[in-house]
Amino acid sequence: MQVSIAQVREQIAQCLTDLADEAQLGSGHLLVVGASTSEIVGQRIGKATSLEVGQAVVETVLEISRQRGFEVAFQCCEHLNRALVVPRALAVRKGWTQVLAVPVPGAGGAVAAHAYFAINDACLVESIAADAGIDIGDTFIGMHLRKVAVPVRGRIREVGEAHVTMARTRPPLTGGHRAVYDVEEARRRIFPAPSADPS
Q: Is the domain 5-172 a CATH 3.40.50.10360 member?
């Protein structure tokens, strides 16, 4: 099936805009991206890799990340145990475990392969805990999201022919029935408004 590269770029940009807005992604945040170019072109995952589509995905994601200021990790396919392509400097700073491989179509995937060469001094890491994620084509990014994942519903649900899911994360809620999770409620309890003067 023929897909429009321009349309793929536009759809990814729309998805990422919605996700970045909902997750409030910016400086200091990390996005994980999983994408199957086979699914985008309407085929079964791993069966119709498209380098052209992979390049479009990577370029679009990196452009949005530069605009918004967040970091990106690109997930490889199962043949590289879903390792992730990231800048080596980020891996060192975060203390992530590096693994040795260079992603290619058939062992990593077209998106990871393009990301490896698009990112300055890229490397692969074993796992991360991202603040948000986008999964294009049911590649299963959940193993690389922080707890607790919260679904994000964007304005579109497909890129090309691929199903899209997105998530943001939040810290786990802690405490029992007495716990307060709202800052304004806590402020009211700690700093109650002065009572009205009856006179």
A: yes
